[in-house]
Write a structure and sequence with these properties.
118 residues, 434 Repressor (Amino-terminal Domain)
Length: 118
Amino acid sequence: MDKDHAPGRLWRLIERHIAETGPYPPSERAVARHMNIKPTTLNNWKHQRMTRLPEVEHFRAVSRVTGVRYEEVLQAALIDAGYLYDSDVATDATRAESRRSGGRGAAGTSRDDTVPGS
């Protein structure tokens, strides 16, 4: 494992599922089997930086097995792979605020009002 690497968000979703599965949590191998992926794939998500996105079927399997919404699984993988940043992710509170303000942020600007690179 890369000594500077901490497990990513995708792995943490899976890890939370394992931890919350009753008094006899499944092994990582059993989880991989339920997702129809190789145990080494699951192990790579745990121990290595994600350099490319997994197959879409893997996202669906993570969602199905863990009970986490597909959008959240996809978002976790996009963050892990560097395609999305934590700051890009709207929280439920900011989404609600955006709906109340008609799509405008707290400063009265919408995302469309901003100029890329400025």
